[in-house]
Design brief:
Number of strands of chain B: 2
CATH class of the largest domain in chain A: Mainly Beta
Number of helices of chain B: 7
CATH architecture of the largest domain in chain A: Sandwich
Strand order of the largest sheet of chain B: 1-2
CATH superfamily of the largest domain in chain A: Immunoglobulins
Distance between the termini of chain B: 17 Å
Oligomer: heterodimer
Number of domains of chain A: 2
Largest sheet of chain B: 2 strands, antiparallel
Strand content of chain B: 5-15%
Strand content of chain A: over 45%
Helix content of chain B: 55-70%
Largest interface: A-B, 34 and 42 residues
């Protein structure tokens, strides 16, 4: 074996070293290329949260608001595992928790625009101030988005945003008028319900009310059909006959808004 | 292969060619390790994003890495190549670990707070210095067990066919 053939021989150790260095160099070049393209692509990603859009009544004492986060991803790499979460608080970031919501995990491929829808549930039956049903408010909103960009970068976005809450029964006034004596000895109580729908969803159902005397006994009930589109003023009355043996004056009128599959308890009012 | 025959066949490149090549390598590494990161971090600052490390520290680390990379190139015809490669790879690993320890970074963007974690990227990027480390160890072992064997293959034109 001459010197020339010795040069051609590449022992295992040499091959290992040379291959490792070559792979290392190739890996570095690929990595730099990936970093540059990922950085450039990521700079084009734009999230934009839409304000609380339409909502609806759901179940018992629950309002569900629909919102969404539009994500524009014009770059090369996907945004995967995207989950949006939301919290609404009353009276500032440290105020009472009013509502929560979350989206399902979704992916936004490169060169696409996706709308991530999520619902925010407002559970009025869980100790929330019912004043939100009758008074507008500014809620401190916190929106989180967690995702993985290009499979390697964990991205967490926190967007604080004050949101205007429109009360569905803004300025609710339940007026019980002077009762009129009926020939059969009963009393006819005129009841009027008035409010303005400031919510982002129409109210279609009926107001049911219960007249209770001072000891909590039910004297009479009544219903008023409601069809109040968004932003409309509503005022309608009804008359309820109460037996003369049960006088609700000085008692309480309980009010609820009901529909096919939901019920919303409204603030009760003292009767004069 | 005997050690004596291997060493006899080896003739290192001239000092001039090594210096010329080393200068090019030094410039390339300076750009890669110092200039590009410093410029990128400046761009981040321009976007009101606080980089994970101070610019001065980044530049110093870059200069050290560029110097080690250049030394690795210059020492390739010698037995110091393997050990220097190991030191270079370990320094690169430390550099990545230094950057990775500062993940995630947070910054404000259009009223939102954005947090970006790059720990996974650092882990994957560590493959590069780990491979270089393996190469350095292999070169060191080869130079220790078969002196001259590596350089004869690395610099075939330097071999005197006599």
């Amino acid at each position: 074996m001459g010197p020339g053939s010795r040069v051609a021989i590449r022992p295992a150790l040499y091959q290992l070293g040379e291959s490792s260095r070559t792979l290392s160099l190739v890996g570095a070049i690929l990595l730099v290329g990936f970093l540059l393209t990922a950085g450039y692509s990521a700079s084009g990603v734009r999230p934009s949260a839409s304000p609380l859009a339409r909502g609806q009544l759901a179940g018992t004492n629950t309002v569900v608001l629909h919102s969404n986060l539009t994500v524009s991803n014009p770059g090369l790499y996907p945004l995967s595992g995207l989950v949006v979460q939301a919290q609404l608080r009353l009276g500032g970031p440290s105020g009472a928790l009013v509502a929560t919501g979350a989206s399902a995990a979704t992916s936004v491929p490169g060169r696409t625009v996706a709308k991530v829808a999520f619902d925010i549930t407002v559970p009025f039956g869980s100790g929330l101030p019912t004043s939100l049903l009758t008074q507008d408010a500014t809620l401190a909103g916190w929106f989180w988005a967690n995702a993985t960009y290009a499979g390697l970068f964990g991205v967490h976005l926190l967007l604080p945003e004050n949101l205007s809450w429109g009360a569905p029964f803004y300025g609710l006034a339940v007026h019980v008028g002077t009762p009129a004596s009926q020939p059969n000895g009963s009393l006819a109580f005129p009841v009027t319900v008035a409010f303005v729908n400031h919510a982002g969803f129409p109210l279609d159902g009926q107001v049911t009310y219960t007249l209770e005397n001072t000891s909590g006994g039910v004297c009479g009930t009544g219903t008023i059909p409601v069809d109040a589109p968004v932003g409309s003023e509503f005022q309608q009355g009804s008359t309820t006959s109460v037996a003369g043996t049960c006088d609700p004056r000085g008692g309480t009128i309980l009010v609820a808004f009901t529909g096919d599959s939901w019920m919303l308890s409204l603030p009760s009012e003292a009767l004069p | 292969m005997s050690r004596g025959r291997g060493m006899a066949a080896y003739r290192p490149p001239s000092v001039g060619s090594r210096a010329g090549g080393g200068s090019i390598v030094a410039v390339v590494l300076f750009v890669a390790y110092v200039l590009v990161p410093v410029v990128l971090f400046s761009e981040l600052r321009a976007l009101a994003i606080t980089p994970p490390v101070a610019q001065t520290d980044l530049a110093i680390a870059g200069v050290v890495l560029a110097a080690l990379g250049t030394a690795q190139y210059l020492l390739k015809p010698t037995r110091a190549f393997g050990p220097v490669s190991i030191v270079y790879a370990l320094a690169l690993l430390g550099y990545l670990d230094w950057l990775g320890a500062r993940s995630p970074i947070s910054f404000a963007l259009q009223g939102a707070t954005v947090t970006v974690g790059y720990h996974t990227l650092i882990l994957i990027a560590s493959i590069v210095p780990l491979l270089a480390l393996l190469g350095g160890i292999a070169a060191t072992l080869e130079d220790a067990t078969e002196p001259g064997e590596r350089v004869r293959v690395d610099f075939p034109r330097a071999v005197a066919w006599r």
